[in-house]
Amino acid sequence: MCEALAMGRGGAWVFMAGAALGVCLEALAEWLLRRRREVRVREVLFFPSRVTCVEGLLAAAREDGGKGLRLAPCLCSLPHEESELSRLLARLLSARRSLELCIFAFSCPQLSCAILLLQRRGVRVRVVTDADYMAVKGSQIGILRKAGIQVRHDQESGYMHHKFAIIDKRLLLTGSLNWTTQAIQHNRENVMIVEDAKYVKLFLEEFERLWEDYNPVNYIFFKEKEVPKETNNNPGTERKFNK
Amino acid sequence: MCEALAMGRGGAWVFMAGAALGVCLEALAEWLLRRRREVRVREVLFFPSRVTCVEGLLAAAREDGGKGLRLAPCLCSLPHEESELSRLLARLLSARRSLELCIFAFSCPQLSCAILLLQRRGVRVRVVTDADYMAVKGSQIGILRKAGIQVRHDQESGYMHHKFAIIDKRLLLTGSLNWTTQAIQHNRENVMIVEDAKYVKLFLEEFERLWEDYNPVNYIFFKEKEVPKETNNNPGTERKFNK
């Protein structure tokens, strides 16, 4: 009887040990899940950016093909420290396979330089932009096109006003920032950096929609002078080509 | 001996039951965590929006103080179905305590109407905007101010170009969309709807930074005529007041 009682107590201890093990496993699973969430990139860059030298960053990417980004020494008078622009550039230069860029206005030479580096590195770059803004003075779109990068643009009454990029179909950069020096150095702007499969999928689908909508086979070339978007206030006379 | 053996077997069973319970608890914890992640709002609205009637949505919010949003019957000729604008409005009208709005251009009457409804409902509304764009024809900023909503604006050389809103310090709406009828009905735009404490915190901090930077006690009123931003291409002559 005493022996049975002792075994009964032993059974209770075993039960408690099992339960404790279960709680530990549960805590471990929770910790792993939390860690998995934490390592996902969730960052926001707020502009204006301090004006810093990013030539070292670009030179390093140029030299080693982007295998490891490191700041090469530079002798110019600008501060050689991290800034919002350098962080944006570093994210862009991390691309290894693909870059989908959907940008309203693009005139920043440093960002253009980064895109050209990616193209030379063999990254598949595709650009969607706004027809009106790609023609303004300082636009980098012509430079990208000359380098062989595929660019498609709207032919609509409204603006192609997105400002997002998708890196390696994994990382989304999106926000209010047009890629212009004015916006980077003077405006209050934001760029969210999001590593989230759901958001990436939704923006990628939007990119592919635009890529098809703006297929050059659908472009219409006019002989007569068009009414510019800015002066067209009558919805009844809007240009509508692709829809 | 046989009795002890039986109790030993009993102990093993108890151990296995404990272990099984542990595994079940672990699975439950994982399921709960996954579910918690899933119920978080992660949505993107892509514009242009179909033109639909949103009067029912606004009328319902007006009548019941936003306790439950339902579509009231409306006899106008527009389609009475969900659209990107109606989804944006429904998110806005879900505010119960606070709304921080940081918007470059605001001329959409329906969105303005929603903000006024929130103000009447007792939601604390604060607006930050761009000085140049709040003065253009059709801007809703004056209407909001007349209703007693606190509005602050920049006095900088660059634009206050953000387009985000924070609802109840819980939900973030951000993207490329200015709150104008042109952008909503004609442009290619995006609005991300994000329920993520980290992003909300970062954008709220940016809002509070701007709210302090644009405190009216820091405004400077000039007697001589200012050079408008649009024609000021020389960085050396930029207006810099707050920094």
TrEMBL record, chains A, B:
Subcellular location: Mitochondrion outer membrane
GO cellular component: mitochondrial outer membrane
GO biological processes: cell differentiation; lipid catabolic process; meiotic cell cycle; piRNA processing; spermatogenesis
Alphabetical list of Gene3D superfamilies matching this protein: Endonuclease Chain A (3.30.870.10)
Protein's membrane topology: Single-pass membrane protein
CDD domains, alphabetized: PLDc_vPLD6_like
Keywords from the UniProt entry: Differentiation, Endonuclease, Hydrolase, Lipid degradation, Lipid metabolism, Meiosis, Membrane, Metal-binding, Mitochondrion, Mitochondrion outer membrane, Nuclease, Spermatogenesis, Transmembrane, Transmembrane helix
Pfam family membership, one: PLDc_2
Location of the PLD phosphodiesterase domain: 156-183
Catalytic activity of the protein: a cardiolipin + H2O = a 1,2-diacyl-sn-glycero-3-phospho-(1'-sn-glycerol) + a 1,2-diacyl-sn-glycero-3-phosphate + H(+)
GO molecular function: identical protein binding; metal ion binding; phospholipase activity; phosphoric diester hydrolase activity; RNA endonuclease activity producing 5'-phosphomonoesters, hydrolytic mechanism
Family to which this protein belongs: Belongs to the phospholipase D family. MitoPLD/Zucchini subfamily.
Protein name, per record: Mitochondrial cardiolipin hydrolase
Gene designation per UniProt: PLD6
